[in-house]
Each structure stands twice: as C-alpha cells, then as structure tokens.
Amino acid sequence: MAEHASKSADLAMLALISIKVASNNGTNTSFYIKKTLDTKKLEPAVEQNFQDCEDNYISATQQLDGAVSSLVSKNYKDTKMFLESAIDDAITCDNGLRKMPGNQLELPHRNIMFRQLCINALDVVLFLTTS
After folding, report:
1. In the chain, how long is the greatest CA-to-CA distance?
2. Would you kindly state where each structural domain of the chain is located, as residue ranges?
3. What is the DSSP string of the chain?
C-alpha cells in the first residue's frame, strides 16, 4: 500500500514538473512572438499568423496554469482537460504556420516543441490516473 502511495506521489510530482516545463516553454515562446512582432518587418500574412499564435499562446499558458491548479487539488479530469486545451491551442497555431510562406522563422520549431511538451505532460497525467 505504501509503495502505491509513493508511486502516485512520484507521478504527481513528475506531472507537475512536466506541466511547469511546458508552461515555461510556452511563456518563452510567447515572448519570442511578441519580440518578433515588435522588432521585425513581416509580410502581412506572416504577421497575422504571428498575431494569431500570440493569442493561442496566451490561452495555452492560461490553460497550463489551470492544469497546475487542478493537479495540485488532485482533480485529474480537469488537469487532462486543461492540457488538451493547451495542445489544441498549439495545433491551431501550427495550422496557421503551415500556410505561412517560407517558414524560415523560428516559431514553427518552437511550436512543435511546445506541443510535444504538453503531450508529454498529458501522458504523465494519464498514467497517473491509471496507476
């Protein structure tokens, strides 16, 4: 019994760490987007995609904040929902970026990394709920 409780506690800590890593990455990407919009002359379509992604990242980081709160209160159903919403925000950004001419800017790569970090966090939460 104690081993099971310890395993759950370790998984919960791993879930918390993985959500925070994703959140930090999302915050850094949000800063990158803002800096790019403020300092670079972008083609109108590229600028619009960056603005859309900026909105997606604001939403995603809020979702990750919610995921942390729900995880701490052991509400794993809501944690899963918040993480899925953050992943959806990353996918929405990615869909716009795929239409972007050139893709030479760093954002597509950052977005892939962010989405994967969110997926990793979700996997840990799903494993936590089944253990």
Report:
1. 60
2. 2-130
3. -HHHHHHHHHHHHHHHHHHHHHHHHHHHHHHHHHHHHHHS---HHHHHHHHHHHHHHHHHHHHHHHHHHHHHTT-HHHHHHHHHHHHHHHHHHHHHHHTSSS--SSHHHHHHHHHHHHHHHHHHHHHHHH-
pLDDT for position 18: 97
Angle at 23 between CA 67 and CA 111, to 5 degrees: 115
Euclidean distance between CA atoms 31 and 60, whole angstroms? 13
Q: What is the pTM of this model?
A: 0.89
Mean pLDDT of the chain: 91
The percent of residues above 90 in pLDDT, for the chain, comes to 74
* Architecture of domain 2-130 in this structure: Up-down Bundle (1.20)
